[in-house]
Amino acid sequence: MNKHAPSALLVLFFCVVGCSSNHKPAPVVDVQGSVPLSKRVKSSLHGREYIVKKGETLYSISWRANIDVSTLARFNKLSSPYQIFPGQKLFLVKNSAKASKNVARAESTQNQKQKRIKKPVASNKKQAYGKNVRGEKVSKKANEKAITKGTNFSQKIRNWLWPAKGKIIEGFSTAKQGNKGINIAGRRGDPIKSTADGKVVYAGDALRGYGQLIIVKHNDDYLSAYAHNDRILVKEQQLIKAGQVIAKMGDTDAERVMLHFEVRFRGKSVNPMKYLSK
């Protein structure tokens, strides 16, 4: 037998063992070689049309499409409170002729639903200040609250509060596949707070890549979003105050426990660090 055979066999053995003990495969990255595909939010909408899915709102769709909600509503001739329904076709670009037909179909469907209602809703034509539709007196505080719901609020945001305590593990990026907000690390169950006064316009998990998500409207220009929550503590259309706990931190649709926080100005992503207090 060749005197070099034992050495060759030993080398071959270690090669086999080394090959069989591979670690997890390296994450697949984008063409720029910087952003793992697993971290990319797969929620951007492109094209001219979109079919509404269950659980979506006009705000959530405008968020995904990077379009101001008022612009998207105008494209589709929708008026506040922007009611839409699953299966409805929305135009993501200006297309007034087709949009008019789309709205007509939507109104027809809505009218058919209303005809099925057996009991008519009480008329409020005779409603006066300080009284409800039944003529009963209501408190001044309750009346002011009702008025507030029908008006714009926080037209100027003086202070932006931090939504969570923790280390920033990823900052804002203007790259095409970059991070459109900031990621704040923390522990499961840590409180998530509203950065400013506003109204919840979306609360759910219909947006792929965001997990349990909350979108808050602060005024006609600004929206903020809080993603990957473990638990949502508010409901859509609820008025909230700056600093109010709206969710618990989690890792839904994320690789670790964290808060993904975004700010949008007229539908476009902006760097949250420009607004948050130092």
What does this 3D model show about the protein?
Strands 3, 4, 5, 6, 7, 8, 9, 10, 11 and 12 form a 10-stranded antiparallel sheet that branches. A two-stranded antiparallel sheet has the order 1-2. Strand 11 and strand 12 (268-270) form a beta hairpin. The chain folds into 2 domains: 42-138, Membrane-bound Lytic Murein Transglycosylase D, Chain A (Roll), CATH 3.10.350; 168-274, Glucose Permease (Domain IIA), CATH 2.70.70. It is built from 5 helices and 12 strands. The N and C termini lie far apart (76 Å). With 278 residues, it is an alpha+beta fold.
Q: Do you know the CATH architecture of the largest domain?
A: Distorted Sandwich
* CATH top level label of the largest domain: Mainly Beta
Number of domains: 2
SSE run:
HEHHEHHEEEEEEEEEE
Write the layout of secondary structure elements.
Elements: H1 5-20, E1 49-51, H2 58-65, H3 69-75, E2 89-91, H4 96-115, H5 140-149, E3 168-170, E4 182-185, E5 191-193, E6 198-204, E7 212-217, E8 222-232, E9 239-240, E10 245-249, E11 258-265, E12 268-270
Antiparallel strand pairs: 1-2, 3-4, 4-11, 5-10, 6-7, 6-9, 7-8, 8-10, 8-11, 11-12
Properties at a glance:
278 residues, two-stranded antiparallel sheet, alpha+beta, Membrane-bound Lytic Murein Transglycosylase D, Chain A, Glucose Permease (Domain IIA)
